[in-house]
Amino acid sequence: MITVALDGMGGDNGMDATVAGAAALSVEPGDVSVLLVGDVRALSERLDRLRYDPGRLSVVAAEGCVGMGDDPRAALERMPHASISVAARLVRDGDAQALVSAGHTGATILASSETFRRLPGVRRAALAAVYPTEHRHGPKKDPFALMLDVGATLDATAEDLRSFAVMGSAYSSIVSEIPRPRVALLSNGTEPNKGTKAIVEAHRLLTASPLHFVGNVEGLEIPRGTVDVIVCDGFLGNVVLKMLEGVSEVFRDVARQASSRRLQWALGLAMLGGGLRELKRLTDWKMYGGAPLLGLDQVVIKAHGRSETRAIRNAIKVAAKTVRGGLIQRIQQEGAP
Amino acid sequence: MITVALDGMGGDNGMDATVAGAAALSVEPGDVSVLLVGDVRALSERLDRLRYDPGRLSVVAAEGCVGMGDDPRAALERMPHASISVAARLVRDGDAQALVSAGHTGATILASSETFRRLPGVRRAALAAVYPTEHRHGPKKDPFALMLDVGATLDATAEDLRSFAVMGSAYSSIVSEIPRPRVALLSNGTEPNKGTKAIVEAHRLLTASPLHFVGNVEGLEIPRGTVDVIVCDGFLGNVVLKMLEGVSEVFRDVARQASSRRLQWALGLAMLGGGLRELKRLTDWKMYGGAPLLGLDQVVIKAHGRSETRAIRNAIKVAAKTVRGGLIQRIQQEGAP
Questions:
Q1: What is the per-residue pLDDT across B307-337, written as a single tens digit (0 to 9) for each?
Q2: Smallest Cβ distance to B242: which of A219, A246, A278?
Q3: Of all residues in chain B, what percent carry a pLDDT higher than 70?
Q4: How many domains does chain A have?
Q5: Which of A286, A307, A325 lies at the terminal end of a domain, its last residue?
Q6: How many CA atoms lie within 13 A of B122 on its CB side?
Q7: pLDDT, tens only, B179-193
Q8: Same domain, yes or no: B4 and B116
Q9: How far is B290 from chain A (nearest CA, A)?
Q10: Is residue B243 domain-shared with residue B280, that is, in the same domain?
């Protein structure tokens, strides 16, 4: 049995999504149980209205939670028993094996960094985003690729980039079941001498590493998904990821306007049905799984703030799969510089 | 009369596109004439098959041209009379007032940098991309925004970013006819302290400048187009721009597959008509106008390699409009640090 500590309070859809996701998971066949952390009365009230297995889902008390607009450091200091901190301590103390949160990203990173230890050889943690691509990946034909860092580390040295590559490769190999994930550096050209100093040096380090390093890729390859893991510093990853969100929003806006302006367009959109879903999948990617925070000695999955029931349930399952796959051990084995 | 020197040999569509674009322009009402530079016999042969005004279009001889796969420096050294170099010298010597090329981007930048002078106060040139956005810009309701640098300068100091902002603002104000273009820095957060050291310092410099500086924008705002000019270093700009191209290609692939898989989807796409064109415009942006190379003492417009007749004609018109608007003088007036 693998136990996941879930911050029950976080996310734009709040307790409704976390409680429903945890309850749904508890009645599915499987070996995953959940500790739902937060305001006991409010969580229990919601839980009582749903079908769940009390043998695989319990509520753990916490006081307060970090709001989406809060300064994370100040909020965590003000509330020592905030739901994200209590959930992290359950993992640290061995009551759970992984942490899942749909709450404030900065607070999740901060509470994790303060509660868990950095793995030996890892100077900086990285937040990895799972995003949909045109290509399918691995034996499961996963329509997702991994990009890291997307915001935990603003600028990265060559050594940081190398360790991001090791961690991303280990995670991708477990979650997407790809024996040797193709790993690439994001740069402004495919030649080994293209990019910033840190990228050119990281190219050299990765060429000499046991990873399946395929070299540099350009921005074109991000949506195509010709590689399984794209490595970059957190500044670039943040801008790129938010741009993908922006493209997705513009796409929805334009489609909505088109369908409201003319009946013929609305009919056309309706006829597209499955064809349009394929496009939507490629742009409306925020509902999927979770983003792992890599480099600490525990498994941490950050579900997107807008996660709904299914996304929460998926994030818990991904966390359990990551624990079962021995992520931390693999990073330690492969990560020695 | 404004004369534009056009590299007649460059671009994926080669002489067919450049000759047809120049010929079409010469018979339009207006005060623009073209010097078409390249292989006289091959260009004249094509020209003879088209309607054109010999009073506004002449062919100038050059020997050789830089191929899309060539190393630009080696090619320009090997061919001192390559079409791009001859075209640049026509501008330097006053026979033309602007340079337009759809050929090798690196060769265009290199030939321009070697032939023209950098403006006083500008340490580095910047290549600016015009890209389509959801928002409309200025009194012309231009559906485009400007992003710079997109590849001329790999990493930029705060002072470089400031001068990119000055140059981008001057160009946008002339071409999109926006009296005070909204200028922003691309960063990983909107707060003034977000971003790399260079960005934080550039934020300070720009806040104190006479430009209409609106602060930092995140990746989300790139496709939305809530500002008129986005400033970043060439590494970030290159990755972001190529990713926009990638999104556009994936979009086309998926739409093509959808329409070939099912008759119903093909019909749905057909019914969408104009609604789809709007989406296509937002993703299939490579056919539009040209990218100015800014910071030199002459007007240089780089048309996209895939430019067709209409895009070449537009690039020539944009070049003439830029000369008429006094771009170089404006950058000199506004650019003093």
A1: 788 889 999 999 999 999 999 999 998 875 5
A2: A219
A3: 88
A4: 2
A5: A286
A6: 25
A7: 999 999 999 989 998
A8: yes
A9: 20
A10: yes
On chain B, the residues whose CB falls within 8 A of the CB of A261 are 275
B325 is a domain residue = yes
Segment B236-261, tens digit of pLDDT: 999 998 888 877 777 666 666 656 66
Regarding whether A161 and A254 lie in a shared domain, the answer is yes
Decide if B320 is inside a domain: yes
CA distance B157 to chain A (A): 14
Chain A (214-243) residues lying within 8 Å, Cβ to Cβ, of chain B: 218-224, 234-236, 238-243
CATH number of the domain to which A300 belongs = 3.40.718.10
What domain range is A271 assigned to? 131-286
Distance from CA of B163 to the nearest CA of A (A): 21
Chain B residues inside the 8 Å CB shell of A187: 235, 239
Chain A residues near residue B222 by CB distance under 8 angstroms: 243, 246
B176 and B276, same domain (yes or no): yes
Indicate the residue of A218, A246, A268 with minimum beta-carbon distance to B219: A246
What is the structure's pLDDT at B81? 97
A25 — pLDDT class (breaks 50, 70, 90): very high
Residues of A in contact with B223 (CB under 8 A): 243, 246-247, 249-250
B278 and B137 belong to one structural domain: yes
| A268 part of contact set with chain B, CB < 8 Å | yes
Is A273 in contact with B265 (Cβ distance < 8 A)? yes
pLDDT digits (tens, 9 = 90+) for A128-176: 998 878 777 788 777 788 999 998 888 899 999 999 999 999 999 999 8
Q: Tens digits of per-residue pLDDT, B192-204?
A: 989 999 999 999 9
Instruction: Indicate whether A247 and A110 sit together in one domain.
Output: no
* pLDDT value at B136 more than 90: no
Q: Tell me whether residue B127 is in a domain.
A: no
Quick one: pLDDT at residue B20? 95
